[in-house]
Amino acid sequence: NLETGKEIATLTGHRGRIRAIALLDEKLVISGSDDFSIKIWNLETTKEFLTLTGHTRGVRAVAVLPDGRLISGSSDNTIKVWNLETQKEELTLTGHKVG
Question: Can you list the domains of the chain with their CATH numbers?
């Protein structure tokens, strides 16, 4: 709570460190983790709404595109675009190389 500075909820479910977080809207938050998954959480119910899997290493970045799709970046050197309406991976971008 911004007024009191007190925690209002704890969202649990990832099995690895959370490395990325973004807001989808005022009720939904997105998290990316070392457990290779992306989770969407309902802040009102504090329940997990959706889990997306497909990365083969930890998720390091998540963002919402203007059209409502989700984009994620991973240590597996890929960027994935997710359609949240179908709850499916739409596109995988490759080409990044490690150091």
Answer: 18-93 (2.40.10.480)
